[in-house]
Fold this sequence. Notes:
The complex is a heterodimer of chains A (about 100) and B (about 160).
Chain A: H1 2-20, H2 24-48, H3 52-83
Helix pairs in contact in A: 1-2, 2-3
Chain B: H1 2-19, H2 23-43, H3 47-71, H4 81-94, H5 96-100, H6 115-122, H7 124-157
Helix pairs in contact in B: 1-2, 1-4, 2-3
Amino acid sequence: MDFVILSIVLLGLGVYGLLTQRHLLKVFISIELVATAATLNFVMLASSLSREVGEAFLILAFSTDTCVSAVILALLVIASRKYGTTDISKIGEPEEEETFEVDA
Amino acid sequence: MLLELVSAGVVISACLAIFLDEAVYSVAALAGAFMLTSLLYALNGAIYVAVFQFAVGVGTVAVLFLSGETLSEKPLTKTQPKQLVVLGVLGALLSLPAFFFSVSKQNGATYSVPFGEALWGYRALDVVLQGLVVMTVALGIAIVLYRKKKIVKRSVKQ
């Protein structure tokens, strides 16, 4: 069960990155780290229990992970093109409206 | 001891990937984390998973390098050597649990079921379904790109 600690550290780093980082790529990297932590947990548990079925299951998890990564990356590219920024806090903000001066 | 060192390397690379300012350096650190994770799997006897992790990691990093160049704006501050040292120390501190609670393999990996049989005997339905999902995603991307190309062609003609 020792590898659980390592994956918890990785998971913590990923979640911390998700909560604090503003750059879109950093958010993506954080998601990748969270996925790696989950995978690590699976693999090491399967390895320590000497079960090949766990590793076979992991191959499928990898393909899902890759699909998820591709979709997230596509969304990031679309968002950065649409809003013209890679700062996640600025995405979704209303654009500056024109102000009209009213003569008194 | 080797496993503990590799585990520490994974944590340090993960720290660098998250906290470095420049996106390209972060991607390089992530590449390091992927490679070390793959090595960790291989050292634990999970060779197939290590190969898959390596392949997936290389693909992800290649795409990230390409998109990182186009997406990232120039950071206001460049990464200082002092910052690198601080991040290295932080990573080393975070990897201390891996040293205290030894991550060395507890027992030898003696598999009762061969890998091929495990994959096709127990998870054949999953494999086929995953193939369908991947094919659907690929088809969806192809259709979207085709439509986009058609729209661009129309606008050029007009």
